[in-house]
Amino acid sequence: DVKVTQSSRYLVKRTGEKVFLECVQDMDHENMFWYRQDPGLGLRLIYFSYDVKMKEKGDIPEGYSVSREKKERFSLILESASTNQTSMYLCASSFGGAATNEKLFFGSGTQLSVL
Amino acid sequence: GNSVTQMEGPVTLSEEAFLTINCTYTATGYPSLFWYVQYPGEGLQLLLKATKADDKGSNKGFEATYRKETTSFHLEKGSVQVSDSAVYFCALSDRKGFQKLVFGTGTRLLVSP
What we know:
The complex is a heterodimer of chains A (115) and B (113).
Chain A: E1 4-6, E2 10-13, E3 19-21, E4 23-25, E5 31-38, E6 42-51, E7 54-57, E8 64-70, E9 73-78, E10 87-94, E11 105-106, E12 110-114
Parallel strand pairs in A: 2-12
Antiparallel strand pairs in A: 1-4, 3-9, 5-6, 5-10, 6-7, 8-9, 10-11, 10-12
Chain B: E1 3-6, E2 11-14, E3 19-21, E4 23-26, E5 32-38, E6 44-50, E7 56-59, E8 62-65, E9 75-77, E10 86-93, E11 101-103, E12 107-112
Parallel strand pairs in B: 2-12
Antiparallel strand pairs in B: 1-4, 3-9, 5-6, 5-10, 7-8, 8-9, 10-11, 10-12
């Protein structure tokens, strides 16, 4: 069965800390995505990557960066965590190419609280 | 820009009731349309999709028809079960590729026995 694994289910950090959220997929997918999910706002795309070492900004990239050194791993980095980054973070992956109707496979999410 | 509007929840139904969750979209061109479902404590999973006008997506008794003239993709099920309780997200992907999805705000469905 296909799998997208996020390293932590719950995470509590302090304001100003550097935070790493890790995501690993075992499906040899080209594309990987980071979304944040907030009540009343749905899911919003932070960054995505369509190949190793390639990345593109999504709709809300401010305050975040990403790293994709290996095909199966996509990391989201909060350089200096702030309270407004408290949220549920969802990683997703999909097959490669520019097709627009492929399904996304999601991880279970990481609930990040920044105090 | 592209956007998706869903009805606000929660939607509360009794088992075996008929379900409709409304979804309308704004997009340039002809997007693909999706319904994703999120069960408690889990990530999202694809429920159904439609890629062109008048297509009907269906899965697990759920259906949605791509209506270009009304820019809608309403989700329906004839008889809901308690196990259908979840949050449902309508989404579209624009034609620029890479499966970048624009999601609605989600609609929580609660089904009681």
